[in-house]
Design goal:
Blueprint: H1 2-26, H2 33-77, H3 87-93, H4 98-111, H5 115-121
């Protein structure tokens, strides 16, 4: 449901932004230019705010995933997670079950696996339905 709302909102913002640009172009030589520019400015500000908020939510989730997977690694191995693991690798590793996690994490570091390679190496997929 949330994905539908986000898609709908982003579509509305994009349509409004395009329409306001067209409106400014059509009224370039008329008195109404100032109000057209203000409408365009509002849409640009709203679009940038939406983009920032979306990015902020994803960054916060990435931090939570790093913390969760670091704790999971510590519980399973008794050691801290390897600092050479990149964020995309850690995000991909969250889909691995405990039985495959440590081996895949080590392999990801040694062979510098991409997130796509890690996901393809997972035998028993562990879904994550809570990503925003």
């Amino acid at each position: 449901m949330l994905k539908v709302i986000i898609s709908f909102l982003s579509s509305l913002l994009l349509v409004g932004l395009i329409a306001s640009i067209v409106n400014v172009y059509r009224h370039i030589n008329f008195e109404a230019l100032l109000s057209c520019l203000l409408i365009l400015l509002l849409f640009v500000c709203t679009f940038l705010t939406w983009a920032y908020l979306r990015t902020f939510a994803l960054k916060a989730q990435d931090r939570a995933i790093r913390a969760e997977e670091s704790l999971r690694y510590f519980i399973l191995s008794g050691k801290a997670i390897d600092k050479r693991l990149t964020m995309p690798q850690i995000i991909a590793l969250r889909f691995a079950p405990d039985e495959e996690f440590l081996e895949l994490a080590e392999k990801a570091v040694v062979e510098n696996l991409s997130n796509k390679d890690i996901k393809q190496a997972i035998v028993n997929w562990r879904a994550d339905h809570h990503r925003a």
